[in-house]
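Entry:
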Amino acid sequence: MSFYDDASLIMFPSGYKEDKIYSLKPTDGSGDLTFTRASTATRVNAEGLIEKVRTNLLTYSNTFSNAAWIKTNQGVGSVAVVTPNYTTDPFGGNNAWRFECNLNGGTTTNDRSWMLNTFSPFANTTSSIYIKLNIAGSKTIILSNGGGDVQTITSTEWVRINIVTLGSSGEFRIGLIGGTGSSDTLDCSIAFAQAEVSDVATEYIPTTTAAVSVGMLADVPRIDYTGGGCGSLLLEKQSTNLAFPSEDLTALTTGGMTNTANQTISPDGTQNADKSTIGTTTRFYDVITEPIIVATIGTTYTTSFFAKKGTGIESIYFFQGDGIRIAKFNLNNGAYIGHSPSDGYNAFSSYSSQSLGNGWYRFTATYTAATTVGKFVIGVSTNTNNSVTAISGNGTDFVYVWGLQYEIGSYVSSYIPTVASSVTRLADSASKTGISSLIGQTQGTLFVDIDVINLNPSNVSRIILSDGTTNNYIFLGINEAGSGNLSRLFINNFGTSFSLSLFSSTAITIGLHKLALAYKSGEFALYLDGNSVASSSATGTIPATSQIVIGGTSPSTISNLETLVLNKSILFPTRLTNTELQSLTSL
């Protein structure tokens, strides 16, 4: 048979837009799934980088003649002047502006010639703009977002200057102020202004009447490329990163180390990863030693961070102070080292590492709180054995660290960036209603190709065919809660009081799997990775269904969704033969 020809719906994550995931079949769009997630999120994009949501908070970011940009003066200074289409811009277009200021000899801070644009929010922001001199020389200017930053421009080629938040007002200001070291006159070209919640300037985002955001915005499906290859649909339950700020280590308490901001390229592709350098005394050295929350005794927490080897530091470890727990990893290859039994330390309940390329690893450890002490401690070591010992500091050895995450639950979720407070990413869900013609009403087959990233005995992932109620439905449970992570076929037809529950004889494990659920009165079957793992010859009326929901515990509940990467999903309006089921699900 041709699986493509016989299928009624094929969802292969590739094409998408806001609220929508395109299906390969049917080709008229009637099988496209609706996607929801009422918050922003991150993903690993096709370049292997963690893609975050970025926003240019400025309006009219390259229309300096607009009234949003106030050209002004004080004292004896002249009003700043802008001229459009003056020269070639940094990206090769003709969109650069001439910008002229003149203090007319003014020497006090009341003498000003500049322009400004207001934006919000202004806290924890970086303001940036491209600039070059029109006449060779050296000019000292003010770039300000409430607090001034004196910058000297000497190039007649484009450079990008920026300032991290210093002041308490959300105003992007550029020009001359007397008495601050500013030059008396300025004749330069400018282009592409940006203000963003970040501690570095990122790729320019053009705006006009309103701020513009790009990335995994609310309701945008996450086609994730973790590990390379073809993209897959990432579906996760709600999670909150309790650690903040997640990227600026300089704002956090250390244990004898010095954290320096923005020293190398991080997993998101920008130079915003911090360098942590040991001191000169003999001691235990910690990148951070930070109280995060008041923990709840008996609650499971997962901590994670990204790290890259610098010099001298060979391994890195988590330290959880509620019972002295250690999980140590090799920075050279990401391998788990363990902990020293002689130390009397208790290991975390689970731990893992993931390579992101370019020397970066994401390290993860999970524990159940024994006290209310909720701390995030990252220590370093100059050896790769399973002991944790003091270091004789030389003041030069260092490691790169980025992306702290501390969340409730037994597994690590996709990265959730934070700045000044905790951040919650809401649950993902994909569904399609009104497709009774695509779903076999008396017989059919549901096939999924998935990558199970996490397993949790308290939660479950399901793909559900239903009529939109809990009365009539068919579902494929991926890792059924309380069943030892078994897959499950379940059918309920309330109208005829027929129900059937079949659990797999084989547990789901973390990794790639192919599952198929086949239904027809007297011929029910569940296949996993090429093997028949459950079957039944029970008879009964198949419930009428008209929609598919990917993720959740019922047709209307998605809050308990586990992390699930969906590579492919196919519906057949007929019950495939056992031979076909074996072939379809073979890895």
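The chain has a mean pLDDT of 90.
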